[in-house]
Design brief:
Length: about 300
Amino acid sequence: MNLNPSIPVFKLYGENRNWPAADLLHCESIHSRSSLYEWHIRVHQHADLVQLLYLHKGQVEIDIEGVKHHVGHACIQVVPALCVHGFKFSPGAQGYSLSFSAPLIAQFEQQFGRPLQVLRQAACVPVKGSNRQINTLFSTLQSEYEGAGEARDMMLHSLISALLVWLNRQSAPAPDNSSRVERKRAVIHQFNQLVESHYRQQLLVTYYASEVGLSTVYLNSLCHEFYGCSALNVLHQRVLLEAKRSLLYTSMTISQISDFLGFSDATYFSRFFRRYTGTTPKDFRLHPMRELKVP
């Protein structure tokens, strides 16, 4: 797992200690942690946690991978593992933060019978007419989490199951239960894991195709089907994402970032960066909001 050493990595924000309890989840109110930091949770990432931030009332400025947007309505922000994120709340904002450890996610994926893609991509999901239902779920979750009632684990599991079913329904198309589609999803999931583990090594697409047991032609076909681009472009976009993170959140020089991402020299890295963004790494660092979009 390759983390940028200059971006803070926490188990929970502001804590460097190990997981605080025997549970595989953590639930707390927005007030309980954010008020300690003047309602500003600065950019950071989690190595092995997925978080759901539920805003019930108030406003929040959400920073995901350097892109900020303001939200003033009830919503759930999905924060996948390794995603660089931060929040700036209006004082008195109400809601909850729910954190899942990787083993717990694996349990629910086994229960669902497939990967929960909704937990693997950053997204802000409006709650709309389900606000009362979702607020009741989260408030009951926190109450059960902090309590010691009979069959506590069973109740927590049931509440999380209901929440994940709701979230999955909002952000996923109607499921196709054919075995062929499920096999495709499994291959793409395996490919994603390999990319995350090896993107800094500048490996050829043939390596990834071999690891997932496909020809490069068929892997490219699947990537076009799921992502709308080639497998090489998926790799390049992951490298580009880490380049942007490094330029925005670290003090590494461009040459150091080039080495960090496995480029043979900084000139090649700069050409690569400009090809995808329309600007140089130096200009992006100085003016990140002026990035040009290149087809």
